[in-house]
Amino acid sequence: MVQKYFRKHYKPQAWLSEKGGKKPALAGNIRWKSEIEMVESFLTNRCYYQQIIQEHEKDSFDSLVVAKVTDYSHCTNGKDLVDQLRPIASALDRCQSNGSSPADVCDAWLGLLSEPPLYPLRKSSTSDFKMPSC
Question: How many domains in the chain?
Answer without folding.
Answer: 1
